[in-house]
Amino acid sequence: MAMMWSFIYGLLEVLQPGSFNIPDAHIHESRRLFMYFSFVTITTLGYGDITPLAERATSFAILEAVIGQIYLVVVVAWLVGMHVSRKSK
Hints:
The protein has 89 residues and is mainly α. The protein is 67% helix and 4% strand. It contains three helices and two strands.
């Protein structure tokens, strides 16, 4: 899922340059950079070294963070449900 978001961020940067505040030293390695940003965002870690500047980029980052948390909750609930169902048998 994070790889899909990194593709979206890369595409957004190509279509609307300057959508992200990227350190100058790393601008040439954008594929790996957006993968890093995506994993930091989906886990809601948020280091802050890369920040969305454009409204669309900010919206995508918020959406990814919310989806990441929903995914975590669903997986934990599924695991707890599996554990409880095995214990009751």
